[in-house]
Amino acid sequence: MLYELVGIARVNTMSEVRDIVRTAGTMITNSGGVVRNANFLGRQFLPHVMGVHQQLHFAGNHFHMMFDSNPKVQNDIYSLLKSDPRMIRITIVNRGKDLVSLTKKHRPAPSV
Predict the structure, then answer these.
(1) pLDDT tens column, 67-107
(2) For position 106, what pLDDT does the model report?
(3) 55-68: strand order across its sheet
(4) From CA 75, how far away is CA 71, in angstroms rounded?
(5) Domain residues for 89?
(6) 12-71 confidence digits (pLDDT tens)
(7) Domains identified in the chain, total number
(8) Interhelix angle for 71-83 vs 14-30, to 10°?
(9) Is residue 58 part of a domain?
(10) 108 burial via Cβ count (<10 Å: 0-12, 13-18, 19+)
């Protein structure tokens, strides 16, 4: 299954974001999955003050990752990152079974 992970980490250092992405990527590859890409989207202000792990956050380091894995690994990654005190928010979305099904589903209509 193809999954898309979008996360917001605390604003401290880039090494924390790198470590979070490396941990998730290692879990995926050790279980036989594939990391398609990982992008750092930059430091951005949050749309509203977010309180998590007994702290208030006004800005965060945003990142994006696409990966293939089985549902159990996806659930393990979500549980691990949700409990990580360096993370503010985490979202994982199922994008489809594979890239071929995605291209068929979102193919533009032929022009006449």
Answers:
(1) 999 999 999 999 999 999 999 999 999 988 766 666 666 56
(2) 59
(3) 34-52, 55-68, 2-9, 87-96
(4) 6
(5) 2-95
(6) 888 899 999 999 999 999 999 999 999 999 999 999 999 988 889 999 999 999 999 999
(7) 1
(8) 150
(9) yes
(10) exposed
CATH number, domain of 27, equals 3.30.70.60
Comparing CA positions, the residue from 26, 40, 35 lying closest to residue 76 is 26
pTM for the structure as a whole: 0.81
Q: How far is CA 99 from the centre of its chain?
A: 17
Q: Does residue 44 sit within a domain? A: yes
Placement of tokens 């994008």 in the chain:
95
Report the candidate in 20, 98, 32 with the shortest Cα–Cα distance to residue 65: 20
93-100 — which CB contacts under 8 Å span 24+ positions? 93/3, 93/4, 93/6, 94/1, 94/2, 94/3, 95/2, 95/3, 95/4, 95/66, 96/1, 96/2, 97/1, 97/2, 98/2, 98/68, 99/2
